[in-house]
Amino acid sequence: MHWNSCNNLWLFFMAEQKIKVLMVCLGNICRSPTAEAVFTKKVQDANLETRILVDSAGTGSWHIGEPPDSRSMQAAKTRDYDMSSQRARQVLPQDMEQFDYIYAMDKQNLHDLWTMSTPELQHKISLFLHQGNSNYEEVPDPYYSGGDGFELVLDLIEEASDSLLGSLVSRHTLI
Ligand code: 4NP
Fold first, then answer.
1. In angstroms, what is the span from residue 5 Cα to ligand 1's centroid?
2. What's the structural domain count of the chain?
């Protein structure tokens, strides 16, 4: 086999081997795209982008194709997270097969994901804030509350992302 084909095969194998993480909220315009941006940056800072793939989606369909909420993007930008290229999409049944870890931002999202999933795949789905030691179990929805809600979303997501990265690194011996 030519070296280039061999190399391509290896790259394909590595892509297939990536640990796939899906962040889920209701609209996929505030909390889960923020979680995608924050966790992606932490993965990149740890030089693990060839090993971990991060995506996000919403249980609802209202905002499909839209960029994240401008208030989320602005709050994220002040902490150096870029959300500008993201576009909302809805969770698909095949996401349950394709992703290894699926994190719900709140208990309603968790319930909706469990309902969509088959029993043998439900072990992949959990509350994002069960990563870490937060006093919060859910990431509060900032869409209608506004104000400091967007800062709280970032605080909670940053802490959970640090814990998640640590646990993936040790569980999958990544470093
Ligand atoms: P998210 O916030 O679930 O964090 O993206 C929401 C965005 C939109 C709506 C609700 C929550 N909505 O009702 O349109």
1. 45
2. 1
pLDDT at 162 over 60: yes
Q: Cβ distance 22 to 101 under 8 Å? A: yes
The string of pLDDT tens digits covering residues 24-54 is 999 999 999 999 999 999 999 999 999 999 9
* CA 44 to ligand 1 center in whole angstroms: 27
Residues 6+ away with beta carbon under 8 Å from 94: none
Nearest to 89 by CA among 63, 119, 126, 68: 63
Which of 70, 141, 153, 157 is the pocket-test mutation for ligand 1 (most atoms within 8 Å of CB)? 141
Q: How many CB atoms lie within 10 A of CB 106?
A: 21
**Ligand 1 neighbours by CB, cut-off 6 Å:** 25-31, 58, 62, 141, 143
Q: Residue 112 belongs to what domain range?
A: 19-172
Classify residue 8: in a domain, yes or no.
Answer: no
Torsion from C-alpha of 135, 138, 144, 148, nearest 10 degrees: 30
pLDDT confidence of residue 10: 64
